[in-house]
Structure formats: structure tokens, C-alpha cells
Amino acid sequence: MTISTASNNQNIQAESQFDATSVLAAEKTNAQRVTEKQQRAKEILDASFPLESGSHKDVVNYMVYYCNLVACFADGKLVGLENPSQFVALSGHKREPETILLKDAQGCHLEISLGTHMGGIDNLANIKDIQLESRTSLCMETQSSHRYWISLLETGAKGDPIAHSVDKEYTSRSGDDYSLTRICKN
């Protein structure tokens, strides 16, 4: 091995260590951003859909018991919403819902998507996304509007919020079908 080959190998090794350090730093920064978004989204839940006691920030699981949304805490405590009628529907099984649909006093929906933990992110209740319903008027004469869902946690390639318009199907708290279409009558 020549001196230039040894020097070249050291440079390559130093570059790969730098690349690994950069990737780890970027991943840590991304995880911190996601955690901050999660905290802000849970603050919205606390403000708009408060629990009887405690905070959505400390919930480890959500489930539906009979017709009520139940938040489970690490100490085993179970609480419902301060206003139980705000829970309107779900998709998936009551013990492990995939989504939970809430509705505020103004008739605006909020969807909580639940799933598995994302690597390295401390998210007690396994919240994948929270989407807010937004409506845009289409025609004043027919009083119809277009329903959009704006993600609070997921972003596009440039970091912009994601908004999409899709029909959504749920099971109401009473067990009936609960549909939200893209076009709705006000």
C-alpha cells in the first residue's frame, strides 16, 4: 500500500463518517419537528375536544366503549370526552379504532388516524395524523360546498400542509353508516 492509497482510504472513511453524522442529525431534527407538531395537534384536541380530566398529550390509547370514546392513561385511568356527543364515528374495531371522528359545536369534523409507532418518535397514543375538515362554498344558490381535509401532521415534499378532498366512510357511534362526501349541502 502506498502513502497516497492510505491517505485516500482515510479521506473516504472520514467522508462516510461525516455523511452518517449528517444523516443522524437530520433524522433527529425531523423527529423533533414531528414531536412538536404532535404536541400542537394535541393542544388543539385539548382546546376543542377536552377530556373529562387530563390531557390528550398523556393518552396512551383510545377505544370506544359502548357508544363513548374512552381515553386510556398510563396509570390505568379511563376518561371520556367532557362533551361525549362530540364523538360521532369511527372506522375499524371499537377496541382498536383505525380512525376516530369528532365533531365540534359548529359542525366541523376532525379525524384522528391511529396506527403503529413511527421509529424513534415518542407518541403515546400512536396518532399517525389529525385532519381538520374545511369547506369551500361552490354555489350560493344551492348552498353546497366542497369538503377538504387538511393534515396537521403530514406534509408535502416541500413541507407544505397536505389538503385533499375525498369521500370518507365510518361507522357512527350507534352502529349505522356515517358518510362524509366531497360535496355537501350546508
The largest β sheet comes out as:
9 strands, antiparallel
Task: Please state the structural category.
Answer: alpha+beta
Low-confidence stretches: 12-18
The coarse overall form would be: globular
Terminal Cα span: 78 Å
Overall number of structural domains: 1
CATH architecture: Beta Complex
Q: Rg to the nearest angstrom?
A: 22 Å
Instruction: Using the coordinates shown, work out and report the CATH topology.
Output: Malate synthase G - maily-beta sub-domain
Number of E-type strands: 12
The number of helical runs is 1
Instruction: Return the string of H and E elements.
Output: HEEEEEEEEEEEE
**Name of the CATH first level:** Mainly Beta
Describe the protein's architecture and organization.
The chain is an alpha+beta fold and 186 residues long. The chain has one domain: Malate synthase G - maily-beta sub-domain (Beta Complex), CATH 2.170.170. Helices cover 25% and strands 41% of the residues. It has 1 helix and 12 strands, in the order H-E-E-E-E-E-E-E-E-E-E-E-E. The protein has one helix at residues 3-48; strands at 59-65, 68-73, 78-80, 87-92, 97-103, 109-114, 127-139, 144-155, 161-164, 168-172, 177-180, 183-185. Strands 4, 5, 6, 7, 8, 9, 10, 11 and 12 form a 9-stranded antiparallel beta sheet that branches. It has a 3-stranded antiparallel beta sheet with strand order 1-2-3, with no helix packed on it. A hairpin with a 5-residue loop joins strand 8 (144-155) and strand 9. The radius of gyration is 22 Å and the shape is globular.
